[in-house]
Hints:
By secondary structure, the chain is mainly alpha-helical.
Amino acid sequence: xxxxxxxxxxxxxxxxxxxxxxxxxxxxxxxxxxxxxxxxxxxxxxxxxxxxxxxxxxxxxxxxxxxxxxxxxxxxxxxxxxxxxxxxxxxxxxxxxxxxxxxxxxxxxxxxxxxxxxxxxxxxxxxxxxxxxxxxxxxxxxxxxxxxxxxxxx
Length: 154
């Protein structure tokens, strides 16, 4: 391996804001707004002030989008999920599990920690889905009542 290849291999991958926007399908303005709301923080900045994002940051952007688009969460709800810490624990555990020199006992500890964090996250998601289902049921019932009232006028 050449010296240049070794330097590249040792350098963590970082993307600029426009590259993250393209990778994740959100606008650069959205990324800046999420930064203002403290949902997302760039890993680092260049001397020029340019934002740099890590793979974990890109995963967080994807997670925020999924919470919004798939589950219909507001940004406040997204913040609650992300600030609960379970997601960060899972990211940290995943990252540490990639290390090649883990002892079997540390490997077990990490897996137990990941299982516990994932179970807590699943619990919160189940609660949220229950609330969403209750809201949906209310909307269905309201729609039925409105249609019945409309049918009486016909």
